[in-house]
Structure formats: C-alpha cells, structure tokens
Amino acid sequence: MEILINQPKNLNAMITLTKASCSLIQVFNYRRPGDVECIYLHQFENIVSIKNDSNKQYRQLSKNIEKLAEDYGIITTTGKLGRKIKLLVPTDLRNCLQKIYDLRKNNLIPGVPSTNPYMFALPNTLLHRNRFVSAYVCLSNYAKACGANRPELLHATNLRKHLATSCLELDLNDAELDDLTNYMGHSKQIHCGIYRRQVVARDIPIIVKFLQNALQCKDDESLVESNTADEPMYQSISLGEEILIEKEAPKRRHSKEPLNG
Questions:
Q1: pTM score, two decimals?
Q2: Planar angle of CA 175, 178, 184, nearest 5 degrees
Q3: What's the whole-number mean pLDDT along residues 16-23?
Q4: Can you spell out the DSSP letters for 9-28?
C-alpha cells in the first residue's frame, strides 16, 4: 500500500493489494469464495461499527469488550441462496479497503471503468467487462507461495470445517449454536449432522462413558442374581423366630415305561 501512496496509478501494486485484501477477508471470516469476491462498492460505503456514543448496546459493554469492538466494522453482503452475509473487518484491513475505494472513486485505476460495481475489480479485457478477482484462485496462489507442506488443503471448505468443529467442542447452547449456523450460512440440522460426527475427541469419551455405565449396571445385576441364588431362604413366623428352610431340589417326574406284554 505504501507504493500506492506515492504511485496511485501503479496497476501491479493495485492488483496485489486487491487480491491480498480479498484473501484476508475470506480467511479472517472463514467464508466461501463467492461471499467475499462479489462485494459491491456501495456495500463498503455502508460499513457499520459499534463505536457510537448514541448506541445503547455499546454503552452497556464492558471496557474490555468495548475496546475490542472498536477495532472492527461489519460489511453486509448477499451470499448463497440470498442469505445475508456479515463480514467482520479489522481496522488494518479496513484501511486497505478504504485505499482501494478511494482510488476507485477517483478513477485512478487503469483499465477499471467507473461503471464496474465491484470492490475487488480488475481491468477490463476485450471479452470480459466488469471483472473481479477470483477468491478461490487468490487463496490457492497464496497457499502455494507461503511454503505450506500441503497447500492443496488450504481452501475454504477445510477452513470452514475447522471453524465448525472447533466451536462445537465448546458445548454451545442452542442460542449460540443458532448464531454460529446463521453466521456460516448453514441450517442447524445439517450443521450438526455433518460436523458433530467429526469431533472424535468429543464423541469417544461420551460413548465410552455410556458403555461403561451400561456394563457396570449389568455386572451389578449379575451379582445380585448370584447372591440370591446362593443364599438360603428365610421365613418369618409369628413368634418372631426365623426358621431356616432349605430349598428342596425339584422332584423329577418319572415317565411311565410301557409294559411289555
């Protein structure tokens, strides 16, 4: 971004800033590529922040949360199936987006017309107009450039799985789980069905606990039955004395043998 301060029409620097900002928003928010690459200029104009003296909720926050909230803004876009997508933007990333926005508004990016409505716009070509960066391609390129051992694993699907499974380990209540699924654009039923099965560290101890409890109950029942079979039976009489009554062996029935006649 420092290059653009001195050379605002440096196209290479502008494209680099645009691609990096797109990938940073995607990774920071664990979003699908389509949720971030199609941000419109007017959506950035409507970015909101909780830092507002007239905001009642802001005044009710604790000092630590209040300080944390001041460092972020929210951009609202439209994602898959028309869902509202909220993108959290930290201050340093917001400064980068503001630089891109200012250059766009002043028509200082060569090849990008003012009619291009996208925040992460690219110069037009003869065949393509109103182009924008591909968040999928950008993240793939950065995954390879960062020197990761397996860059093919650094993509949106795995990032979102990581977020979902990590949060489920927190034992979220129903309200918190609703907030998470809404944020990720999932239905609650599908979210729990897909991701909860993958939390092995959570499932194994719970299942083992159930099985051990069942086995313990079975052992206790067997012990009671065994003691009952071995102990003699006692019968109480009116004089308060107890007479030991031994169990009699069951009488065998002798089948009548046919007479030879």
A1: 0.68
A2: 145
A3: 95
A4: T-HHHHHHHHHHHHHHHHHH
